[in-house]
Structures are given as C-alpha cells and as structure tokens.
Amino acid sequence: SSGINAEYGQESEDRVKSQMGYFGWRPRFLERFNTPAVFTAIFSLSNFFLVVPYGTLVVIIPTLEKIFSLNSQQTGLILIANDISGMIAAVALTNFIGAKKIRWIGIGMIIIVIAFLIPTSTTLLVEYPKPKDNSQINNETLSDDIKLSSFCEQSLDNLDDGSTGYQDSEWATRNHKYFYLFILGYLLQGIGATPPLTAGVTYLDEIYPQRKFAIALAFLTIFSFIGHPLAMVLASVFLGWYVTLSMPEGMTVNSKEFVGAWWLGFFVPSLAAFVMSFIVLSYPQQMPAAKEVLKEKVEKGITTVHEKNAELSQSLYQVTKRMAPTFKRLLKNRALDFLIIGDVLFYLQAGMISFGPKIYEKLFRLKQTDVGKLLGIFHGCGFVLGVTLGGLLVKRKDWEPKKLMLIFLVLNLMATPFLLGVLLHCPPTYNESPELRECNAHCTCTTELYDPVCDTVTQITYFSPCYAGCTDWEGKEGIEGSRYTNCTCSTGGEGLVPGECKDGCSTRLWISLVVSTIQTVIKFAGFVANNVIYQRVVAESDRTAAQGLRQFARKALGTLPAPLMYGWIIDQHCDVWRSYQDGSLGNCWIYDVSTLVMWLCVVQVALRLLSCCFYFMSYLSFPDKTPIMDSPDQSREDEL
What we know:
Elements: H1 2-13, H2 36-68, H3 72-97, H4 101-121, H5 170-175, H6 179-207, H7 210-238, H8 264-281, H9 289-299, H10 305-312, H11 316-331, H12 334-350, H13 356-364, H14 368-396, H15 401-415, E1 453-455, E2 460-462, E3 472-474, E4 483-485, E5 497-498, H16 506-525, H17 527-536, H18 543-559, H19 561-572, E6 574-579, E7 585-591, H20 593-621, H21 634-639
Antiparallel strand pairs: 1-2, 1-5, 3-4, 6-7
Helix pairs in contact: 2-6, 2-7, 2-8, 3-6, 3-18, 3-19, 4-6, 4-8, 6-7, 6-18, 7-14, 7-17, 12-18, 12-20, 13-14, 14-16, 15-16, 15-17, 15-20
C-alpha cells in the first residue's frame, strides 16, 4: 500500500493539481466543495439543464412544422444533426481527453449552450401570422382580415390580389430558410455533448468506490432523464404564452394564428447551464478522493498503477500513436462488440421518442399545450422510479459484470410486451378526405390551413369550415358557445364548433399512458447496470475510448437513422398534406392512424427483440473478470 502511495504521488500528483479554482487562483474555502458528493450534485444539475432543450424540441415539433413549413423527415434532419457531428467528435475527441476530463467537460458544456442559443435567435427573424376577426364575415366589404379566413366564400375570387380567399400561408414558406439554423445549432450541440457523455461517467468512476459508483451514476442518470420529461411540461406551459410574450389584440390561445413561445424552452435552461459550466471548470482534473479509489481498484484487480499512470502521462503524440491499437484492441473484445450492437438496435427502436408528443397528439387528438404535460408527468415518474430501482439493485450486491449483463437482458425482455401500448388510439372521426363535393362545390377551399370543426350531433370532424360549406359565424373566436352556421355539408343542424370531436377517447388515453409508463420503469431499471457494464468490460485505460466507440456506433447506426426512419414511416401514412397554390407540399395535417400505429408497433417490437439477441450473445462472451492492461506497452503487443 505504501509503495502504491509513493508511486502514485510521484507519477501523477505532480502533474494534476487536486485543489479547486481557476488557473493560479485556488482559494482554500472552495475545498469544502471538493468532494465526490458535491461534484456529483453539480454535474447532475448541469446535465439536467443541458437535457431540457431536448425535451423541448420533441414537444415543439408540430409548432416548428407549422412555422417553417416542414414535414416529418425535415424535422428528423434537425433531430439527427447532433448525432452526425457527435459520432465524428466521439472518435476525434475521446482519445485526446485523457486526464483532462474536467477541462473538456466544461468546454463541451459551453459549446452546448452556444449551440442552443442559435435556434433561439430565429424567433427574431421569422414571420408569424396576424390575428383575424371572424365577426367580419358578414360585412359587405371584405377587409384584409377576411383574406385570412377559412370560410366558404364565392366572392373572394374577385379580390384585387388574386387570392383564393384562404389563409395566407406565405409567411411559412418565407420562414423555411431559417430552419437551417436549427441544423447548425444541433451540429454544434453534438460536438459539445461528446466530452460530458464520455468523460463524465469515467470521471465519476475515478472518484467513487465500486458500490457507491452505481448510486452516483443513478443520481446522475435521474437528473439527466428527469430533465427530458420536465422540459416537456415546461414547453407545454411556454406554448400557452404568445411567441412575443405580448398577445396581439384580437388573438386568443385558441386562435388558429396563435403561435406559442417555443423558444423559451431553449433560452432559459441555456443560461442556467452556462453558469453551471463555469462551476464545473473549477474542479481539479483529479480529486484527492481518486487516490483511495485507485488503491481499492488495484487491490481488487480491476486496474494497476502502471495502467493508471499511462493514462495520466500520455502526451498528444502518444495519444495519436495509440489510437489505432486502442480501437483495434476494443474491436477484438467480442463482449463489447455484441453489447454495442445491442445498444445500437435499442436506440434505433427508442428513436420514436423524438416523435412521441406528435404521435400522441394525433392518436388522441390532444392540444399541444396538454400533450407535453401528460407525457412529461407520466414518463418523468417512470424515469425516476426505473433509474432509482436500477441503482438500488446494483448497489444491493457487489455484482459481477457478467451477472449484471444477465439482469440487463432480462429487464429488456420484460419491457418488450408493453411496447404494444402504441396500438391504442382514438377512432378516426373525419368525414372523408377534404375534397369538393356537391355540398361545397360553390366554395373556394384548399388545404393550406388545417382548421377542424366538429359537428357535435353526428360527431364528425370536418377539415375546415370551408369544406363543411359554412358561410356564417355566430359569436367571437375563442369564446365558448361560438359556432359556424349555415354549413351545407353538415346534417346535424346545430352548427359546427371549432376543433376536433374528442368524445370517447379518455379511457384509451389513460390506459396507453399507464402501459407506456410501465415500459419506461422496466426499461430504465436496467440503465444503471448498462453503464456499469461498459466500465467493466474493458481495461481501465480503455474506458474513455470504449465510451467514444459506443457513442460513435450508437449515433451512426442508432440515434442518427432513427428519426429519419420514423419520420419516413409517419410521412408514408399521411392522408392530407398542406398544399400551396404553386403545387408544393408542406407539413402533414391528417394521418391514417390505424395503419400508422400497426407499423410503429411492428418496427419497435422487432428491433427490441433483435437487440436482446445481441445482449444475450454479449452475456455469453462476457469475461469473468475486468480486463487489465498490465503495462503501458500493452498496445504494442496488440499490434503484433
């Protein structure tokens, strides 16, 4: 033990300062915070703020599609932009992080903050629709506001500007070019996220004993994942505020022209994360507690002093020289290879979460301001409960890595049947696809605006008042009791109310939420075990590189193609597209939900079962003990 202390002190403490501070300023009062517990709390809170914009994005996708005139595949491009840059950064950066983990983590967090401020800035550039007043529909002289209406009108063809009389959608097409700023921001985000994702877990493993590491990892995971559902709730709240934070006169939350404050979900957490990043940068590259942890790992045969010193003392030249042998050594590890392939398929299946709020909104005819709150609360509880149970399970016993692999496999198999909850949805209530019939042949209708109206007597939803043949309006928009009248296609006789018909859906909605939450609990109960397994399936000095290889494969083959795949599946089941006067198509308004959910169910279950097959092969190939690189020159032997 004394030999280890001497060698460790001579080889590493001279190179890496163990006090908190910045540059040469290292005040003593900061040392009370220089503990693993405090760092874990700060780093977890930082990850919480960094994850919030992700949850925001999946909720505001329908809003972005409306503002920028995007289809699901184009929003998928935004979702995968960070994976494109992230998989490149995973290979390029992880081998250079070495002992400078804190520095890279802090820099990465600052890059992420800047990345999320870029799409936020588009709110200053884009155009938004103006409010209208339906009460003017009976005026003899048509005003400019009437050009924004979706009523059935015959005389609108005589307007001076040649308009069809339908809502002006040119503002959306003019905004389309700004959606590339979202791609730019998420490309930067992928680069910035790489150091925290790879070096963060490794740093925690260095400052905690083996059992406590599982609890610290569970704590970090809870904060990271709870940020996603909480962001969904916050984004739903923000979408209830007008985009400029000042409601225009004549507009209400129920107005079709209303656009929520989508950008707040990026802006607020980015500022908080910016502050947290500087706190993280104050921590030393190696805590005093790391010495005791290293001694324990040496005694348990998890690593050697030579192996640790080799990691700490690598120069840029040595790192570059050892990249190829390191990855060659990792690729020869069959247990790691099968584990990574299983994770790729797992994340490919889980990629539907990006479109989760949009799917629920369409399946159960929910408002955007409601869907995020429901999914955020239910799935948030599932995240916390699952990760907490997983952390306690790992902590309960000093499990061998191979047994942890078996536990992880069993939990994934248990969660698979609950994926069938996606089959639940509300029955369609649309009369027919919007088209001109005898009852509305005298109307000038297009699909530029989706303005659903409900016949409360027959429970039939029409695409718009125009397609229902409505010519008059009683009341004021946004006021309860207001309705469209003189609707020639309606047989109810009591007028049509704004919005889709929603009767008879609440029971299926609650069942679906409960089923999906159970699936979330079981799935994330194995998440802590999965992260611990990655720290034990390779040698100590290869952990960061293994995390980089994992991130690269997961992004390149899993999270990158997943949004494109699900976006394509969703678009293939579109019944009514937003169609402009020039013949171009925008976002989708109405989906064939019955066939859509069948395809989503088949794809998800197939991918999950296939991932379990590779997890099983990883279990069979798993080493009985953690591999050890006995000397710094081990990489040379691997080249022979």
